[in-house]
UniProtKB/TrEMBL annotation:
Keyword list, A-Z: Hydrolase, Magnesium, Manganese, Metal-binding, Nucleotide metabolism, Nucleotide-binding
NCBIfam families on file: inosine/xanthosine triphosphatase, PRK05074.1
EC number(s) stated in the UniProt entry for this protein: 3.6.1.73
Organism: Aliiglaciecola lipolytica E3
Lineage of the organism: Bacteria, Pseudomonadati, Pseudomonadota, Gammaproteobacteria, Alteromonadales
Listed cofactors: Mg(2+); Mn(2+)
Gene3D superfamilies, alphabetized: 3.90.950.10
Cofactor: binding details: Binds 1 divalent metal cation per subunit; can use either Mg(2+) or Mn(2+).
Designated name of the protein: Inosine/xanthosine triphosphatase
Family: Belongs to the YjjX NTPase family.
């Protein structure tokens, strides 16, 4: 892939610093000989503030990327949407990621993080995961830091790390376009 002056322009459909850093770090790992200009923009998800199903979560990420493609010019666009769902094995939180260029789009998904049933019950009553975790753990604005993942794994994993892995995997079709 060729980029003008070895500079890759990237837009993330959020101003959350964790999400911007995750995509920036992903691109830096994949393109170590390029300068990465990655910035976040306000992009509407058009879904609930706290998506409660896999379908709604994926739709939110897709909507954010579509907005970015429609309003900005870049080499890559990305969006991450965190959500929850109650699976047959219990409630979990996860994220959908979408990476796109002007002519290709790839959806990816993070690993599941089990959450306590009591937390899921509060989410069903209209609470959002980040503020709820702040209440439970006595933290402040955890969703722009380590997230529920950091809290529930005692810091062994982070929200950014979860996003970075999902974004890296979603980049495979861009790295091997002749095979996809």
């Amino acid at each position: 892939m060729e980029y003008k002056n070895n500079i890759i322009e990237a837009i993330v459909g959020s101003k959350n610093p964790v999400k911007i850093k995750a995509f920036n770090d992903t691109l830096e790992r994949i393109f170590p000989n390029h300068q990465i200009n990655c910035r976040g923009v306000d992009a509407p998800s058009l879904v609930a503030e706290q998506p409660m199903t896999e379908k709604e979560t994926c739709e939110g990420a897709m909507n954010r990327v579509h907005y970015c493609q429609s309003h900005y010019s870049a080499d890559f666009y990305a969006a991450m949407e965190g959500g929850v769902d109650n699976f047959e094995y219990g409630p979990s939180t996860f994220a959908f990621v979408v990476v796109a260029t002007n002519d290709k789009k790839q959806v990816g998904r993070s690993a599941n993080l089990p959450i306590p049933q009591s937390v899921f019950d509060q989410l069903q009553k209209g609470k959002e995961l980040g503020p709820l975790m702040d209440e439970l753990f006595g933290t402040s604005n955890i969703k722009q830091k380590g997230g529920a993942i950091g809290l529930l794994t005692n810091g062994l994993e982070t929200r950014a790390g979860n996003y970075t892995q999902a974004l890296t995997l979603a980049m495979a079709p861009f790295l091997h376009a002749d095979r996809f």
